[in-house]
Amino acid sequence: MAYVDHAFSITDEDIMIESSYTVNNRPPVKEIALAVALLVFGTLGIVSGFFMAYNRVGGDRGHGIFFIVLGCLLFIPGFYYTRIAYYAYKGYKGFSFSNIPPV
């Protein structure tokens, strides 16, 4: 008979003896609030940047371009995590609140 080392084997009994695994899928309120704030301020930055660049607020278009770039830097992660939170809330397959990193 061959020697079988059972020290590293996993059976159904081992899983049953361990503590039960529960999925905590509560919405992370702080993280979602941050994502929505990034989305809103990013949108405001882009819109005000276009307005400032078009009307040459500050004497040239540089101020407007700065606000557009800053708005894009805020908008992209805000949109990404707000979309994940929305899809997780609606229950779409593959989306979970655990995909949102903690603050």
From TrEMBL:
<keyword id="KW-0812">Transmembrane</keyword>
<feature type="transmembrane region" description="Helical">
    <location>
        <begin position="65"/>
        <end position="89"/>
    </location>
</feature>
<keyword id="KW-0770">Synapse</keyword>
<dbReference type="Pfam" id="PF05915">
    <property type="entry name" value="TMEM_230_134"/>
</dbReference>
<dbReference type="InterPro" id="IPR044234">
    <property type="entry name" value="TMEM230"/>
</dbReference>
<dbReference type="InterPro" id="IPR008590">
    <property type="entry name" value="TMEM_230/134"/>
</dbReference>
<comment type="function">
    <text>Involved in trafficking and recycling of synaptic vesicles.</text>
</comment>
<keyword id="KW-0968">Cytoplasmic vesicle</keyword>
<keyword id="KW-1133">Transmembrane helix</keyword>
<comment type="similarity">
    <text>Belongs to the TMEM134/TMEM230 family.</text>
</comment>
<feature type="transmembrane region" description="Helical">
    <location>
        <begin position="32"/>
        <end position="53"/>
    </location>
</feature>
<keyword id="KW-0967">Endosome</keyword>
<protein>
    <recommendedName>
        <fullName>Transmembrane protein 230</fullName>
    </recommendedName>
</protein>
<keyword id="KW-0333">Golgi apparatus</keyword>
<keyword id="KW-0472">Membrane</keyword>
